[in-house]
Amino acid sequence: MATEDEAAVRAVINAFIDAWNRHDMKMLSALFSEDADFVDVFGNWFEERTAIEKALTQRHATVFQNSPSLRNVSRSASIGPTWRSPTPLSS
Question: CA separation (Å) from 15 to 26, 28, 44, 89?
Fold first, then answer.
């Protein structure tokens, strides 16, 4: 990964960590594209930025309200610009 790309990825990761630790789900969800998918630690799959923000806002008001702070991400990997997730299973 080019140095500029790595710096950009690290900036997004740091913004994610900062928003998570401040329980600012509006800021955190702004890091996602409009058509993003997000799978939480419980295995729930959320489609689209508004659904992600709503779900994480609810969770940070309840189960994650006292969650330990995220501090860092030790490793990340690029999956490529054309990767698309499979169609989610019906819930």
Answer: 12, 7, 23, 30
Neighbours of 58 (CB within 10 A): 12
Match 């940070």 to its residue by tokens. Answer: 60
Contact 57, 33 (CB under 8 A): no
The answer on pLDDT for 83 being more than 60 is no
Task: Decide which of 3.30.300.110, 3.90.550.10, 3.10.450.50, 2.80.10.50 is the CATH code for 3-61.
Answer: 3.10.450.50
Q: How far apart are CA 4 and CA 7, in angstroms?
A: 5
Query: For 14-63, how does the pLDDT look when each residue is reduced to its tens digit (9 = 90+)?
Result: 898 899 989 999 999 999 999 999 988 889 999 999 999 999 999 999 99
Question: What pLDDT score does 32 carry?
Answer: 93
